[in-house]
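Q: For a teaching handout, I want to show students what a protein-ligand complex looks like in token form. Below are the inputs, and the small molecule is S-adenosylmethionine. Please produce the holo structure.
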Amino acid sequence: MPVHDRGSFENLYAGQPRWEIGRPQKALLDVTDRITGSVLDAGCGTGENTLFFASRGQRVTGIDFLAEPITLAKRKAAERGLTATFLVMDALALKELPEVFDNAIDSGLFHVFSDDDRRRYVEGLASVLRPGGRLFLLCFSDAEPGDQGPRRVARKEIEDAFAQSWVVESIEPSRYEVRPDPNDSSYKDGGPRACFVVAKKAV
Ligand SMILES: C[S@@+](CC[C@H](N)C(=O)[O-])C[C@H]1O[C@@H](n2cnc3c(N)ncnc32)[C@H](O)[C@@H]1O
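A: Here is the structure, written as tokens, with S-adenosylmethionine included.
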């Protein structure tokens, strides 16, 4: 099932989305030493990844096109005494964001876009990253069987998407951690098979 429009995400947030694991994604934790300086979290959801970088004292902005997860993210920040900026904003309008970041993270957003929106999104990312800034991106990979959830992304698609204005530094097999669901056995232990991408904006 393709999952990419507002309505689909509103429905998922009305329940308990599988990606709401209550902690940052391990794939990002594994590279924290490489993520220094300011961070944009595109499609931040309720902000676990954003708040992790905020807890390290980094300037962090999380954006999501739905108000509900942003409200929850702001509440978590207040409860944890953390400073982060959370904005209701469409990631396809990143060019309108009047800020430039050292890093961008994307945990589970890229893979929701159509081909056209993917192009627009990647252009927007380039506009908010400083030259030499890096994108750390976790998306479903084509090694994940079935078609439930978001699009599976092949290595070649990633290379093509970042062919201009970027240097793709690595594309590694990874996992997108999800909540266990006794009623849904679609994803194996460890979560759906994913790609972890590091791409540098050309200088
Ligand atoms: C799979 S969830 C991942 C949430 C979070 N990054 C995480 O890993 O827990 C994808 C998120 O992207 C948001 N999203 C989807 N399309 C978007 C868009 N065009 N602009 C901004 N956010 C979007 C959804 O509302 C949802 O919160």
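A: Two things your students might notice: Strands lie at 39-42, 60-64, 85-88, 101-107, 129-140, 166-175, 193-201. The pocket of S-adenosylmethionine is lined by residues 9, 19, 25, 43-45, 48-49, 63-66, 69, 90-92, 107-109, 112 (CB under 6 Å).
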